[in-house]
Structures are given as structure tokens and as C-alpha cells.
Amino acid sequence: MIPFEYRTPKSLKEVQADLQQFGTDAKLVAGGTALIIMMRQRLLRPSCLVSLRSVRGLNAIAPKDGGLKIGGLVTHREVETSSLVRRHVPLLAETYRHVATIRVRTMATVGGGLAHADPNQDPAPTLIALGATVKASSAAGSRVIPIEEFFTDYYETVLKPEEIVTEIYVPKLPANSGAAFLKFLPRTADDYATVSAAAVVTLDRSKKTFADVRLALGSVGTTPIRAREAEDALRGQPVKPEALREAAEKAKSAVDPISDFRGSAAYKKEMAGVFVRRALEKALEGITARKPKPKAKSSRAAPKRRKR
Amino acid sequence: VKFSQTAVIPAAREPLWNFLMDVPKVAKSLPGVETVEQLDDTTYQGTLKVRVGPISLTLQGKIIVEERDQQSWRATLRAEAADKRAAGAVKGKTSMQLKERSPKETELVVETDVNILGKIGEFGQPIIRKKADQMLQEFVENIKKQLAA
Fold it and tell me: Considering the entire predicted model, what is its pTM?
């Protein structure tokens, strides 16, 4: 390995100062699950590593305006197991549970994963579907970025070299909403997805018409992809299988996968449609299954019927 | 990886051909090219800087002109280059064909077959095509400017 300077700032302010000093030569390292691999493969050779391990104040999960704010240094495992997350945004806990293995999840952080911007990661599609925002800060101040504008290209984001992800915010879902994330894993459980799809569906009061839909896909392009045309195909439409099928078709044209050992480009495109439809179905099930005021135990214990 | 790209350049076929056959000049229109020098009639040596996400590569290597056929408006180049720090290497073949669209418009068809070796290959595979498209677009813009000047 190539020698580099190692900094251990204790506060966000010190981090910002280090970033300002070293600029593009510095790399932030939190869990190190992505960066260290790339350094070992000599793809990256930063001259300075700024460790975030001792930085305080960025690892809390807290309710805010009915939604949740999650610190940039919260680990994947913490999101997965947090009772607050499970209560407020269960889909988020479920999505983070899908990431790699428990060893990786214990180290990898929410902010680090997003900044890494690997288009195969699981959290991004769910966060896009949930309408999350990312807070980035530097010595010059902070800004809030809608997550779907965060990813610009393969492993590239809107983050400037001196910026750090300090927090993400996940808003509360409107009434009559259901959410789902599906990860297609034909190989092993800890693999990247062949295709992943997240759907958040909001019905109108009659529960017969789509009021709003947000769809996003992972692993099928150089960034996570929001399938806007597929969403448009559903908004205002009655809840019917034909509508879901049409949305699935539209989603296929939103993706641009490549052929690799997880499947050919054509197969992945086809599966993108299939998994968007299934994610929509699952999200809808979440709405209809939920009683207006569920008695905590009885409704949760009721086994859900599996539809194939 | 094989792919084909096309671009329309607002210039007559002949001057465009002459321009494209002037390798050092053309190379300067290619984004990322830092140096080019001629070794002999058909061989050139140079450095190319490419950035893929957080990774930047400095590729050093040779370009060999294998075919230069003005009768059929076709040229083929072979390139071999390796990153200085050994993260990977690139081997590729590109053929160019000029098709006359009108007296003032020429279609440039580029067919490339490129292999990216080493770690950078595993990492960069998904983006090669897109990166190549970006480079061609910039290349064409630069050619337009140069031909207009």
C-alpha cells in the first residue's frame, strides 16, 4: 500500500478544515467497506485519509416533522435494527437489511454508502422512492439535495470535494400509502442485485385510484434511476392490473443495463419490468392489508397470503 | 466490448479526411490527450488522462495506424496503453468510415472493439460505452471548432 497521511478529526468542524486543506487529495473514510477495497486494488491513491471514526454528533437517528433524520455516520446495521426506523419507515430498515453481509452492514455508514455512489447499492432506490433528501456540508455552509438529484454518473455525485454528507431526511408517508423494495438475487444472498426496484404508492381516499406513485430502480444503469414515465402512467389511474402492466413496460424503457455475469442487458431490462410490477403489487398489498387503526398485535400476527 | 458510434460533422468529406489523418492534430481534439509524438510513419506515442468516477487513470501507450484507405474513406487504428501505476491497461481497435451526406456534411462512423484489462476493467466495464460516447461528442465539437477556424 502507498503511504498516506491519516487524520482523525473529532468534530465536523475539524473534518471540514481537513477537507479544505487537502481538497481532492483527501478521501473521507467512515466504515471503509468501499474505499479500502479500491485502495488495495490501487484504483485510488489518496494522499490523505480523513477518518470519521472519532467524529461526534453524526450518528443519531431522530424523528423530525413526522419523518426521520438519520446521521451520516449511522451504520447500515443501525438503520436495519433501529426501532424508530422500523416504526416510522419500516421499508428503510428492510432495505438496509438487504445490503451485502452483516459484517459489511456493521461497518458501512449511510452517508458513506451514498457518497460512494455505486449504482448497484440497495438503499438509493428506496430513498428515491421515499423522497428522501441529503444534507451536505462544508466549511462554507450546508445544503439540502433531493436524493434523486444527488447521483450524477457512475460513482459520481453532486458532492464537491470539500463536502461531507452529514444527514439524510426521510419524510413521513402520506395517508393511504404503501411501500416496497424488491431485490432480485438469482445468485447469492449477499450479491449485488441483478435488478432492484422500490415503489411508494399513495391511493386517494376511495383507495381505488393512484394519487401518487414514486418508482426507482437500482443496478440497471450508471446511477440509480427514477422511472418517471412509469409513475406518470399510474397517477390518476384506477388501480387495475392493466395499469401496473403498463407502468412496468414504461419502466423497461427507463433503464439501461449492461450485460454481465448477473444477466444479459436484455434479461435485466425484462426483469426491471417484472420487478417494478411486483414492487407495485407489494406496495398496494401494504395499503389494503392495513386496517385504519390496527390493534397492534392481532393485525401484525396475521400471516400475509403470498401471491405468486 | 464492441460498440459503434456515429456523428455528423458539417464539413466536406475530403478536408475532413485530411484533417483526421493528421494524427497529432486530431489527438489534440480528443479530450484527455496530454501528449502525442510520432515515432515513424504509422506509429505514435502518447498519454491520455481519463477519469471514471473517483478514479483517474494516466494511460501511456502507442497508436498504430493499420489502414489508411482514402479510396473507401476508411481508416483503422490499433491502440495499446497501460496505466502508469499498473491499475490496468487498454487494448483496442478502432475503425473510422466517412460517408458523404451532402457536399457540406459528412457522417463519421466509428467502430470500436476495446478490452480493458486489470482491476480498472472490472470496475470500468459498465461505463466504457458511455465514456466513449462522451469523448466522441467532445471530439466532434472540437473538430467542428478546428475546421471552422
Answer: 0.86
